[in-house]
C-alpha cells in the first residue's frame, strides 16, 4: 500500500474522531505570559484601551483568567462548564498559571481550592449544577475560613430527571452561604466580573470567597461582543498578608478558628465565638459594597429610572428583558429595568430607590422556584405599594421569549397564566 | 523566618507563662531531637483533653517529635479524637470539613510550593480511620494516585471514637459496635494494599509500642514526601473506651495486637530508599566536616 495517500483518521468505537494527542514536547512559541506586566486594577478595568471581539462566554472567561494573575486552577469536567476550565488548562500550558490539575470530583476540588487559598495563592475553579451541589459542604465553609478565591458557576439543571440544560435554581443554594455572588448577564460580564471579583474578594476588609455565575449555554456557548483590554497586562498578585486572617503557612500565628478547641465544644464561649464569626462574614459582605460600586459600577444597573412598570432581573433574564423594554419602547411605552449584578451582598437600598416610583414590578427568572422574586419581595416589603409579580419563569432548559415578558407587562398574572401557565409559588 | 512568630516581644518576657518561655528557649525547632532526649526539650504539645490511657495521644506526642522541621510544618485533620490533641499543638493545624484532609492538603502543598520555592514546607495529614478510609476515601486515594507530596498518617483505632463507638471500614470483621448490632459483616479495609496499588513511595504499619520507631517512621515519611511522593503511615491507636481496655492494660493490648495482626511493616520504593541514603550520607559528610574543622581549630 502506497504511503501518504490518505491520512489515517483515528476514531473511537462510536465513530467519533479521537482528538486526544500526546502532550507537545517543546514549548515552541514565544513566552507571552512571562512578558505580561502588572497594572493597577483601575487601569485594567477603566483606562486600558479595549478591542471589540466576538467570542463565546467560555472564551471570555478564559480571557479574564489570562489577565487575572491566577496562581493555581483546579478543574473537574461537567457540562456546560468543562470548556472554560479546559481553556484555563491551555493558559497553564502557555505559562499564564503556575499550577493546574484535574481533581477527583467537586468535593475534592473545592477542598483543594480551599487549601490553596489558605496557602496564600490566587486560586480558581469552576463548576455547574450538580457539581455545585456536590461541592456545597465545602463551599459553605469557605466564608468561615475567610478564604478569598474565585468560583465560576455555569448554571444548569440540578434535579432529576437529569438534564444538562440551563436553569439557575442552584444559585438559591449559594444565597445563604456567605459567598459573594455576582450574576453575569452576558459574555462581556463573564469577562469583567471574574477580574473584579478577585479584587473585591481580596480586599482586607472583605476577605471572602467570590462566585461569578452565568446561565449555562446561553452565555457559555453562545457568542457575543466582548471588549477586551490588551493581553500583555494583568492584575496585581494576591497580597495575602494584607487580609483579615493569617495564612496557614507557618510563617505567622495561625487563624484562631483552627486552633481553639473551645470553638468545637458545647459551652457559652464557643456559642459566642461562632455567633460573632458568622456575623463577621455578613459584615464583611457589607464592606464589599463600596468596592462593588467602585469596580462594577454599582450593585445594580437601572434602565429608564422612574418608570411606572419595572422589570427586576439578573443573569440572562436581563438580556431578554432589555429586548422586551426596547420592543415596548417601540410601542411608545417606557418600561424600567433593574439589572442585579450582585446577589450577595443584595442591593436592598438600591432596589428600594430604583422602585420608588413603580406601580408594577415583574421578576422574570430562569428557574422554577423564583428565588429572585422572593429576594425582591423581602427587600421591598413595607417599602413599596407596587404590585410585585413573580414571573414569568422558564426552566429545565427553556428559553425566555420576549413575548412572554411583554405578556406579563401588559396582562395581569392571572390573564398571563392562562396562556403560559408558569408555576407561581 | 517562621520562628520569629514564636519569639517573645521585648518587654513581655516576664509576663509570658513558663510553658511558653520553655517552648521558645527549649523547643524542638531548627534542630534534631530524639525520643531518648524527652524531658530535656520542650515538646510541641503541652496539654490535651484526651481520655486517660489513650494510646492515640501517646502516638501523636511521639510522632510530633519525629517531624524533621516542625517550624515549617502544617498539619491537617478532620473530625475525630486526634484533632483534640493536634489543635493544641504549637503547629498550625487545619481542621477542615468531614473527610477533606487530602483534598485540602493537595491544594495547600501546591500553594506553599508556589509561594516558598526556596523553603520546604512539610504538609502532614493526621486523621482517623473513619476520616481517611471511609468519608475521606476518595480524596485519600486520589491524592496518592496524583502523587501529591505530603504525608498521610492514619490514627487507626478501628472505631468512630469521637461520635461514640460506631463501626468503621477499618473495624475488624465480627466486632459488635454501634451501627453494627450483629457484628461487622465485612473484613477490615486493606489500606496498606491500596496504598501499594496507588504507588505510595513509603508505607509503614506500626503499633505504638516503640516510641523511637514511631519518631523514625514519621521522620522518614515526611522526608520522602518532600522529594519522592506520597507517604502513608498506618498506626494502631486503640480506643480503650469503646473497646473497654482497662487503662493500665492499654500497652499490653498494643503489644498483643502488634504480635497478632499489626506487626511493624515498611514498604519503601527504590527511589525513596536511594533518597534516604543520600540524606544520611550528606548528614555524615557534614558531621565529619564539622569534626574536622573543630580538630583543625
Task: Itemize the secondary structure elements and their pairings.
The complex is a heterodimer of chains A (425) and B (297).
Chain A: H1 32-35, E1 37-38, H2 41-47, E2 51-56, H3 57-66, E3 72-75, H4 82-93, E4 99-102, H5 106-119, E5 123-127, H6 130-139, H7 142-145, E6 150-155, H8 171-174, E7 180-183, H9 187-201, E8 210-215, E9 223-228, E10 233-234, H10 261-264, H11 268-287, H12 289-296, E11 300-303, E12 309-313, H13 316-330, E13 335-340, E14 342-344, H14 348-354, E15 360-362, H15 371-380, E16 387-389, H16 402-410, H17 413-420
Helix pairs in contact in A: 3-4, 3-9, 5-6, 9-12, 13-16
Chain B: H1 18-26, H2 55-66, E1 73-77, H3 82-86, E2 93-95, H4 101-115, E3 122-128, H5 129-134, H6 137-145, E4 151-156, H7 191-197, E5 202-206, H8 211-227, E6 231-236, H9 250-260, E7 265-268, H10 270-296
Parallel strand pairs in B: 1-2, 1-3, 3-4, 4-6, 5-6
Antiparallel strand pairs in B: 5-7
Helix pairs in contact in B: 2-8, 4-6
| Mean model confidence by pLDDT of chain B | 94
Element pattern of chain B in H and E: HHEHEHEHHEHEHEHEH
Broad structural category of chain A? alpha/beta
Number of strands of chain A: 16
CATH overall fold name of the largest domain in chain A: Rossmann fold
Reported for the largest beta sheet of chain A, the result is:
7 strands, mixed
**What does the main sheet of chain B amount to?**
7 strands, mixed
Quote the average pLDDT of chain A. Answer: 90
Biggest sheet, spatial arrangement of strands of chain B: 2-1-3-4-6-5-7
Kindly report the oligomeric state of this protein.
Answer: heterodimer
**Total helical segments of chain B:** 10
Kindly state the percentage of residues in helix of chain A: 25-40%
Q: Tell me what portion of residues of chain A adopts beta-strand conformation.
A: 15-25%
Provide the CATH top-level class of chain B: Alpha Beta
> Stretches of chain B where pLDDT falls below 50 for ≥5 residues?
none
- The number of helical runs of chain A is 17
Mind telling me which CATH architecture of chain B this is? 3-Layer(aba) Sandwich
Shape of chain A: globular
| Rg over alpha carbons of chain B | 20 Å
Residues in helix, % of chain B: 25-40%
Radius of gyration of chain A: 23 Å
